[in-house]
Amino acid sequence: EEEEGKGGSKGDGGCEREGVGDHHGANSQLIVRQEERDGSVCNAGWESEEEKPDVKKTDTENLPDKEDFFFEGAEKLLEVWFTTKKKSGSECDLRNIPRSALEQMLTIAKCEIISCMRNSYVDAYVLSESSMFLSKRRIILKTCGTTTPLDCLEKLIWLVKKFTGYDMIEDVFYSRKNFQRPDLQLSPYRAFEKEVVTLDKFFLDGAAYCMGNLNRDCWYMYTLNPMEQYVYGKEYQDNDQTIEILMSDLDPKMMDIFYKKNSQNAEQATKKSGISKLVPGMKIDDVLFEPCGYSMNAVLEDANSDSGMGDYATIHITPEMAFSYVSFETNIPKESYMDLVIQVINTFLPGKFIITFYATRTSVASSFHQELKKCLRMDDCCRNDIQFCSFQDCDMTYAHFFKATS
To answer: pLDDT tens for residues 291-328?
Structure first.
């Protein structure tokens, strides 16, 4: 029996879906938990975030008092791509994992499903802390607060092996901005080095990076970077791209919209804020939290216009002024994202923001790397940092902007 939610069908199973081409990665890793190694991590040049000694905690421990309440808006973003060594993998699909199994997995990450919507390319879930997206070969788990997404990796791999037909991991991306209060996170999330140790227990040839200013805002990333790809090359068939805009020090009047005392419901907040104008041609599943906070997923209304990768957009808002934070993310292919970035910035009016942009070299969006490199200002915001990272089949750009004051 299907449960009907505000965002669409919430029952197990999916709607009728169009076929999406499968890709067999010669350098992919078998879905088996790798033997735990000694946990040593080479000096990759990242900063050790402030740590406190590991102690056993209950769910209610390590939380600040009410008068000192703090919520970490910056998300931990885990993206895993799967493939198969079978000659034909057309029947393989991550969306075959039952909803009940996904719910059990998410309890390990300390979050839950609030609503769901889907089209023929992607299932989009609004979570109690951010979002999850499932397309044919890729799962994206984006969670804020003190969630623990890496803790559910073992369960995820087991579910994929049991329900989807995939038997190999093709690629992995884990990323996050530096936390404002790393001391409030559970282990291993208080320090990126420890997150890397956890990831290395599952994946061979993982590589960790830090982009940005080590003693201010920065962005951490972990991905697979096998040496054999540089020796033998890698055939990459996907045109993939993702842009994130991570905003802090937001406009107080805009943030007021995302309190329940000021907006009757999520739909009203979406319209009053102008969020609906940021995602034209997309259907929206939005949630306004009690007493404040907002999450939104968007997928294409016309699935026939999907790039084939499961196009989506997502926005998450922590409106409290002491630690205000907004994230915008989309993988919709564009030759240029400049107009979209300016539109997002003019909507939320951040005091500072980070742009991270990833694209495979076959993507129509790949030229945006150079456009971003040439961009020194966006309206009244100045760029004070930009870094570029190049891999075998894709490139990554990090840029930091701040509002210029007179």
So the answer is: 999 999 999 999 889 988 899 999 999 999 999 999 99
Beta partners for residue 330, in sequence order:
243, 313
Residue 86 confidence class, pLDDT cut points 50, 70, 90: confident
Residue 61: count of CB within 10 angstroms of its CB: 9
Which candidate in 263, 295, 327, 366 is catalytic?
A: 295
Give residues with Cβ within 8 angstroms of 282, minimum separation 6. Answer: 298, 299, 300, 301, 313
Q: CA angle, 179 as apex, 243 and 36 as ends, to 5°?
A: 90
Q: 190-200 in b/e burial notation, b at 16+ Cβ within 10 A?
A: bbbbbbbbbbb
Active site residue 295: yes
Question: Cβ–Cβ contacts within 10 Å for residue 274, how many?
Answer: 15
Contacts of 57 by beta carbon, 8 Å cutoff, 6+ apart:
186
Of the candidates 49, 116, 129, 130, the residue annotated as catalytic is 130
For the question of residue 130 being annotated catalytic, the response is: yes
Kindly report the number of other CB atoms within 10 A of residue 276's CB atom.
Answer: 16
Q: List pLDDT tens digits, range 317-359.
A: 999 999 999 999 999 999 999 999 999 999 999 999 999 999 9
Catalytic residue among 28, 49, 72, 115: 72
Do 73 and 327 meet the contact criterion of CB atoms below 8 Å apart? Answer: yes
- Give the global pTM: 0.85
Residue 398's closest CA among 362, 344, 353?
Answer: 353
Tokens of 21: 């081409």
Distance CA 16, CA 35 (A): 39
